[in-house]
Each structure stands twice: as structure tokens, then as C-alpha cells.
Amino acid sequence: MIIMPKYKFEDIALNITQKRKPTIEDMETYIGLEHLDSGSLSIQRWGSKVPIKGDKLIMQKGDVLFGKRNAYLRRASIAPHDGLFSAHGMVLRPNENVILPKLFPFFICSDYFFDAAIRISVGSLSPTINWSALKKLEFTLPNMDEQEKLADILWAANDTKESYKRLLFLSDELAKSQFIEMFGDPFLNPKGWEVKTLGEIADYFIGLTYKPANVTSDGMIVLRSGNIQNSTLVFEDNVRVDVDVKDRLIVKVNDILMCSRNGSADLVGKVAKIPDLNEKMTFGAFMTIIRSDYHDYLFSFFQQDGFRRQLTEAKTSTVNQITKSMLNKVLVPLPPKALQEEYAGFMEQTNKSKIKLKQNLDNLEITTKALMFKNFG
Predict the structure, then answer these.
(1) Does the keyword DNA-binding apply (predicted)?
(2) Which CATH class is domain 174-335?
(3) CA 208, CA 37: separation in Å to the nearest integer?
(4) What architecture (CATH level 2) is domain 6-138?
(5) 15: Cβ–Cβ under 8 A, 6 or more apart, which residues?
């Protein structure tokens, strides 16, 4: 049996703490915790539409950006460019004498690292990891030759995962194009369909409020913005809570889950349709459930620019959220039922393809995690 050497985290990683005040130019490239997706090494969005306040961490392209605040969300990604990063995170670089740079991001994203880091979180409202405690944690690592082999396999798997995600994205783009072709721009309503307010054809509810102390390993899953990827529900990083949940806050088949509040405006409004689940689930306070007999049509309607344009016009001083009063004002053109059913048939075929892609993605994720579990710790 090979005994792997053990290292303190401060011997594995360098914690880069240099900061500076943001400039106007930094607004385009700034990365906040809201730009990091749970379980994903890649960052797909960045920037701030409002001036950035306070000193921020200086990052370089290739650094690992680690979300030390609310670490249970398991956010760690690779910096896509030089710039500034949230002071609620850490900028980490590898000690190349101990760990290969190309393996380092996978180590930080591993359950082996995150499980240990989460255990030392402090604070009740927004549990945070302090460097003073993190640097003392000890981890075992394979030798450099094994690291080289492992990194090559993990990067090949990661590239394949990104390809699957790209195909899922293109499937959604195809669905949007088909929607416009059949129904026209829902904002302009060029075909003159009957128009109703969203409140006339749907019910909607804001989600569950809970405390960090309610989080448990065997409670009910709380669906959050991180559970929506490419308009599909994913369960890569679940939060479970042990609280009493009202019946109306239990999601049902064909409910539409919408992100109604987030630090990143790009995430607000993203949706996923609830499939047939094998257990009861609820949804968080920053999410909204829309329940309607027009679920197939509305699901695609919410993904159109026409819906977002209505929200933009309805915005008040409150930014980065969709309120119930805003939804009440949304106008929905309603094509004939037969045309909606035709579109639903198209979406059924598209969703079958997405399910297969998602299964492949999930299987690859399981294999990757098993490989990291075998080689780390």
C-alpha cells in the first residue's frame, strides 16, 4: 500500500491577499461570488452594472477563485482574465513544489477539500472560512507522476463536460428560435394574439426562508439558482433543510422554477421546469414558482427577450430581482391552443435529447468524483 504524503494547506496553496480600489474600467471585468457556479471550474459571466465599492482582491488569469463566504455552495473556479475579485473570496495559487498547477483547480473543487473546509466555517448567517484556520488543515496528495496522469484524465473529462453543456445551451437556443418562428416576438405581438396578464393565467409563490442552522444532510432539498443550468434542473450541489414546509411551497410536476433575486442580474429570470421527482422538494426565498395550465408555453415565454424587456420597463429602484408586482404587470400573448400543443410536441422531442445529454453529463460527473475520491485522501 502506497502511503501518500500529508501537507498543511498553507504548503499546498498560496493565499494572494493584495488588494486595490476599483476603477470605472474594472466594472467590465470584475468577478463577484455571484459569477461563480457551484461545481464548475469555468466562469461564463462577469462584470458589474453599478460602481464597485471597497477594496477588492487582485487576481491573475489562471488563479483559482474560491468562495470563502457561504462555502457550503462549493464555489471555486479559474479566473478567465486579470482583474479584481470579491473580498468575500480567496485568490489561490499552487505551490508548484507540492502540486501541479494543472491539478490544483481540481483539488480545490474536490469534495475532499470542500468537506474539510466547510467544517471549519464560522458564523451563522453567512458561514465564512478564515485563512487562519484553513491554512492548518492537512491533506494528502499523490506524487508528481501520479498527479500528471490524474490531471490529464480530469482535464479530458472536464472538456467533455463543457461540450455537453454547450450542446444543452444550443438546444435551448433552438427552442427559442422555434418559439419566435411560430408565435412571433412576445413583446411586439406581431401576430395579434389575445393578450392576458400573467396573473390571469398563473399563480406564483416566493420560496422558503431558512437559517444556516436548518441545513442538514438528510432534510428536504431546497432548490436554488445553482440548481438551474441550461434551463434544466441539476442536483450537483444540493442544500437540504430540516424545517416545516407549507404544501404550496412543495414543488409539483410542470411548475416553473424561476430565479427571482440574485447578486448577478444575468441570473435573474432564468427558469427550469420541474420534472417528475423521486422525493419532495421545496425552493429558496430567492426563487419563485409559477404554476399554470400553460406551463409549456410559459416556460419558453420566460426565456424570450420579450419577457425580459417587459421586466426592464417594470424595474423600479430595486435591482436584481423580480417581484410579484412586476410579474402581475407582465403581458402574455396567447396563441391558439392547437398551436401551443404543436410547440409542446416540438419541445417534448427537444427535452428527450436534453435528458440524454444530461444523463451523459451526470455519469461523467459521477466518474470524475470517484476518480478524485480515489486519488485525494
Answers:
(1) yes
(2) alpha beta
(3) 21
(4) Alpha-Beta Complex (3.90)
(5) 90, 91, 92, 131, 135
